[in-house]
């Protein structure tokens, strides 16, 4: 789910563009609220990362990274997967591969979100919401349990210029962190979930005062 943004209007700093190995290849992630990233993923798990290995895909013979994990909790995707043992990612960040830190024991427990492929493997990418568990805010941990999912019908629209207030629809929450705080991880990203209330209107909900 890509937010309605005009990339040309976007401050270049906000676009996470990485072209490390091959300058013709790059991975660009639109700034996305954690709730949007959770809603657009079909698997979300909390896991310890045990090991990392470069493996070759048997069908395409392309190399990729396979992380062995120990699942702690599955937040989303349990209809399809019970216990995830491995997650896969592309070899380089230019191809949207994500590097997980396994040497740092304090930060080796992660929140992972990604995609279940048609052959039942879990793939994770740079543009997914992936963070060491202890770097999540308290509200994000609470919202992961249910609230983010409850609000997936609502749309989150990033507001990057003054004036976007006037165009907001009732099924939409306006994400203003960049405008007000010049950061993607501002108050709303750290604390809020966009939920649909009984009157059918979507509004930000905060767990903490
Ligand atoms: C991994 O953890 C080590 C030790 O804390 C740290 O120095 C390093 O920057 C981390 N790497 C990444 C990619 O986060
Ligand atoms: C949001 O959380 C991140 C990571 O925990 C932190 O670095 C940042 O300062 C927080 N932002 C606000 C506005 O609290």
Descriptors for this entry?
Tissue inhibitor of metalloproteinase-1. Chain B, domain 1, two-stranded antiparallel sheet, 209 residues, 5-stranded mixed β-barrel, OB fold (Dihydrolipoamide Acetyltransferase, E2P), binds 2-acetamido-2-deoxy-beta-D-glucopyranose, alpha+beta, 5 helices
CATH class descriptor of the largest domain = Mainly Beta
CATH architecture of the largest domain: Beta Barrel
Largest sheet: 5 strands, mixed, barrel
**How many domains make up the 3D coordinates?**
2
Q: According to CATH, what is the topology of the largest domain?
A: OB fold (Dihydrolipoamide Acetyltransferase, E2P)
Please compute the radius of gyration using only Cα atoms.
18 Å
List ligands, each type once. 2-acetamido-2-deoxy-beta-D-glucopyranose
The overall average pLDDT, rounded, is 87
Strand runs, count: 12
Order of helices and strands: EEHEEEEEEHHEEHHEE
**Strand line-up of the largest beta sheet:** 3-4-5-7-6
Query: How many angstroms does the end-to-end distance come to?
Result: 29 Å
Strand content is: 25-35%
Helix content: 10-25%
Class based on secondary structure composition and strand pairing = alpha+beta
Number of helices: 5
